[in-house]
């Protein structure tokens, strides 16, 4: 799944600087439609960030998260997601 992380992360541009407003999208079925799409995530703890999901399972979403220095691979527990919006 992350075989070419260095190549992928160096070629993927940074996300849009415009942060979307939260929407009421929730749940695993909707997340599956966001695979390989830029997605903004709002967590229940108040954190929010850009994510590029590559896999959505029953409990975990895998992909790449935007941080100050660029894209890094990461996983998100689906139970912790308050809402999301994919583009």
UniProtKB/TrEMBL annotation:
Compositionally biased spans, kind Polar residues: 1-11
Superkingdom of the source species: Bacteria
Region called Disordered, residue ranges: 1-21
Name the UniProt record assigns to this protein: Transporter
Organism: Sinanaerobacter chloroacetimidivorans
